[in-house]
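User: Hey, quick favor. My workstation is busy. Could you predict this chain's structure for me?
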Amino acid sequence: MRFWNAFGYIDPRQATGVAAASEAAGFHGLVVPDHSHYPRQLSTPYPYTADGSPPFPPETPWPDVWCVITAMAVTTTTLRFATAVYVAAARPLHTVAHQVATTAVISDDRVALGVGVGWMREDYDVYGQPFEQRGERLDEMIDALRMLWQPGWVEFEGEHYHVPPMRLSPVPSAPIPIYAGGDSEPARRRAATRCDGWVLAGPLDLASVQDRVTDMHRRLAAAGRAVDDFTIVAMAPDPWDIDFHRRLEDLGVHDVVCVPWTDMGCDVATKREAVERFAEQVISVAG
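Assistant: No problem, here it is.
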């Protein structure tokens, strides 16, 4: 089992401390969530609460994911990083391509790009990108990113993006894995046909995970793809439940996000203690 910690809703000044503690404890990686801001007037209801309110307050820290991943990468050597998930289509194509490629190079290819369409129109408005057709645009962006990350002269022509002949630099020395996030039909199709993995939406019980794994394996087979070359990332309802992690592995899920603290506002020392306890009681037993 590969255990991932999560750096979300946390003061960005704690990033390097959390990363160092996670690496020392034996975590495989850290996932980082994404938003750009919290608008005072929120026109888009959050889809996963009864009243449409986001599960985080306006003062929640949302550091730029590539800045914070780069900071954590240069202070670690083995820890991997992934966005879960980055609202890529809200940004201009070249901005995404350049930032992700640069971070991949600085981290020695320890970065995976987890993408989703997001739910908040304001994330798109602030960057001047259209909210409509965001799913189609994300699909095309994935194809364009893979092209732009190739060495030498590249170009791309699509319905939504046009890239004249150019060179992007720096170029990663290895392919950057792209994971799709989300539970909708388009998200599942995107994962099975275009991506290297799938980030399940939120903590789920084992029966729900099994249903989704079975569905994704069917989709991969229909696309002529091998299950062993595809990563499914689950999120644990109870990070300390060793039996849950073992049963995930039985289902073929080898990556699980476990946050060992409950108070996001606690200091780095408290987080480090929680990480060390998790390493002793869970990673060393179930890993």
